[in-house]
Amino acid sequence: MKRILYVLLAVTLATASQAQQLIQGETLSLEKAIDIALANNKSLAIQRQLVEEAQTDVFKGNAGLLPTISFQGGLTLDNNQADIAIRTFTDNPPLVNLDESGVQSTTINAGLRADYVVIGGLSGKYRYQLFQQGAEMALNQQEVVLNEIILGVSELFVDIAKLQSREELLVENVAISQKRLTRIENRVAFGKATGGLKLNAQTEINQDLNALDNVRLLKNNLIKELNFMLGIDAASDYNVAVVYSPQLPLNPATISANVLAGNAELKINETLVNTADTQLRLSESGKYPKLNAFANYGYYRQENDVQQLAELQTVGYTVGLSLSYNIFDGNRTKRKVQKARIGLERFQTEKSLKQDELVKEAIKENSQLRLLQNQLIREEDNLSTFEDNFRRTQQAFQNGTATSLDLRDAQRALLNAKISINDAKLETVKSSFRLKKLTGELISPATD
Q1: At what angle do helices 2-14 and 30-40 cross, to 10 degrees?
Q2: pLDDT one-digit tens code per residue, 176-227
Q3: Nearest residue to 72 via CA among 37, 14, 112
Q4: Which residues are 312's β-sheet partners?
Q5: Which one, of 363, 392, 367, 380, lies nearest residue 425 by Cα?
Q6: What does DSSP say about strands 239-241 and 27-29: parallel, antiparallel, or unpaired?
Q7: CA 241 to CA 258: how far, in whole Å?
Q8: What are the backbone angles phi and psi of residue 324, rounded to the nearest 5°?
Q9: Over the range 326-349, which residues count as b (16 or more CB within 10 Å of their CB) and which as e?
Q10: Closest residue by Cα to residue 274 from 166, 135, 167, 384
């Protein structure tokens, strides 16, 4: 899984300089749009930094699995007024009094100390696993962010493609309406039609132009939204191209297996369960004795003006073992273990709930995909009928056996049929993207 993310990011960063340069008016592919978004997206950049932060914690020394070596040293200088009475253990004199000023005492010490936990209930091992699982969690969250970015760009891209196709159909429709107006104007000129018919035809053209303007406005607004997601100039303008390829719906058993194996959100729940299990084991390690090994090597020197021992100097080492066992700590360890066990059970339940929710959503999306594909087949079957009806009505209108209203109805029916086919195709594309996100197939797999 880690290699999948790194391979995708490496490809993205390698193409970033090319992807960011979008030529005004060019046709933008979905693949290039995703490249641009992943190269510029700040949320993804933040997530990559979080991954790097988590990975810096993963080393044995951070978990206490390596010995620690420290240097300690000090120098003290005392200068005091000393009034000392020394017992002589004789009758005469029983005491000897010393009253000195400017009494100096100098102490110097320096040394190295090494400590190592020989036995600690495997607490170091479990702390190291927690750091590893923290890094894995960051990678899983990065995969979730990647999926959200790719799906968000894809859906917005497809919506733009839908409006772009509708715009092209409306342009054709305006041209057809304009031809009809021209024929009516010719008939009016020869006295075969009234001015009211011409006025109605002009009104219909205005309605078509208004519809075209509305579609262009919606399309341009969505392009601005996509530009924001891509991190490019908001004024950038381009055409989009989406390749429609039918997707075969899956059976429920395959969907369930794919969701459980590849869903990015479910990987987070799995890591949470593993982390809770490790935390339980770490809490249980407090029940066992701890054996520490230590070693000192140092130098010590002391000089004193009034002590009988005027100077002391030592150089050497000390080694030893220390054993500690917590016989009673007020039930703190017992309660920590109990709490960790409850936490593990909670995360296991949340994982099971998440599995059920994701499988349900994937099966629903698969049913939606199947429905859209069936609708598309029916719409394509009906298209030839609408095309034939429009041709016959257009010919009848030219021959004077059909009215302008008949031709308008046939024209509108054909336009709506083409729009329905286009919308069904692109909604199928969006549905397939959503299904791939749920099954973990939105990010292309790489060799692990």
Answers
A1: 100
A2: 888 888 888 887 777 766 777 788 888 889 999 999 999 999 999 999 999 9
A3: 112
A4: 302
A5: 380
A6: parallel
A7: 29
A8: -135, 140
A9: eeeeeeebeebbeebbebbeebee
A10: 135
Q: Which residues of the chain are modeled with pLDDT < 70? A: 1-25, 82, 98-100, 102-103, 192-193, 305-310, 444-448
Nearest by Cα to 432 from 359, 370, 377: 370
pLDDT digits (tens, 9 = 90+) for 381-399: 999 999 999 999 989 988 8
3-state secondary structure 196-235: HHHHHHHHHHHHHHHHHHHHHHHHHHHHHHHHHHHCCCCC
Instruction: Show the tokens assigned to 63.
Output: 């978990």
H/E segment holding residue 294: strand 290-304
Tokens of 385: 């009928």
Question: Do residues 297 and 316 lie in contact, with contact meaning Cβ atoms separated by under 8 Å?
Answer: yes
Compute the Cα dihedral for 8, 10, 11, 15 and give only its sign: positive
DSSP state of 441: -
Going edge to edge, which strands form the sheet with 311-324?
68-87, 95-119, 290-304, 311-324
Q: Which H helix or E strand runs over 320?
A: strand 311-324
